[in-house]
Amino acid sequence: MLGGVTIRGVNKAIEQGVIQATKVGRQTAIPDTELAPLALLDEVSKSLRLALDHKRQIRNWLAHLPITQLEKTEQFELAPALMVFIDQRVAERVREAVRYAELREKYIDSDPETKGGVPVIRGTRLTASAVAARLDAGDSIESLMEDYPDVPGEALEVAATYARTHPRRGRPPRPSRPVGR
Question: Rounded to 5 degrees, what angle do the CA atoms 32, 3, 126 make?
Answer without folding.
Answer: 85
